[in-house]
Amino acid sequence: MNKIIVPIDFSEYSEFALETAAILAKRNNAELLVLHMLELDKGSLVSSGDDQSQQMVFFLKLAEQKFETYLDKEYLKEIKVTPIVKHFKVFSEVAEVAQEHNADMIIMGSHGASGLSEIFVGSNTEKVVRYSEIPVLVVKQKPANLNFDTVAFASDFSDEMVEPYIKARNLFSNIKLIHVNVPGEGFKSSSEMESTVANFLKKADGNLDKLNDVHYTSDYTIEKGILNASNLIGADLIAVPTHGRKGLAHFFSGSISEDVANHATLPVITFKI
């Protein structure tokens, strides 16, 4: 991991993300790209009038001053930090910055169970996830430790989940897999679930060594099943796949991945299918 992007709005929750990113940056000798988006009207950016130009310069200077103060933190010492200011708030730009700088991960702050932080209110976190080609880590609180000793990877074990699983496996050594069985059309018997998982592991790992690391759970919704199972196995992090800009994965139909990111007390990381 060489570069980590942290979108910030100078809030407490942004600082949780920044401190999390700092820990991971030190661990991996990575650079931090700290991104702030100014909420300027597009008309101001294209106008040639003196008032509009002065307004834009004022907000840019104000953001630079905030950056200088905000980034003056002990935990950022000895880390290469690059501040980036974008002119207006378009959340697809986070993915564009990531692509431009060849970043490896995006880390964002969130209110957790109370809902997403102000800058990522509503569907904005989902927009970042949807456009991002790289993993997005959502954190809810000040990091105590980020060892991620146990990572819960939630999956329906279809073929399209193989690539996200491999990406997660390459980042984290101790992955526990979760299969959620819910009532209705997608319901599977125990033998059907075990057969599906075995075929998945043969394709993804080439062996069945992780069969004992699969947790089967039944619940009324996939979201509840993921959250309850993650707590039961003592997970430090929840990993979920997403189709990104093509829409949410079938396994996470509707707003499941966003709901998990919102309601989990644990950090959540998403991987593009």
From TrEMBL:
Highest taxon of the source? Bacteria
Give the CDD domains listed for this entry. Answer: USP-like (cd00293)
Indicate the segments forming the UspA domain, all copies. Answer: 2-140, 222-271
Similarity-based family: Belongs to the universal stress protein A family.
Name this polypeptide is given: Universal stress protein
Organism whose genome encodes this protein: Psychroserpens luteus
Q: What is the lineage of its organism?
A: Bacteria, Pseudomonadati, Bacteroidota, Flavobacteriia, Flavobacteriales
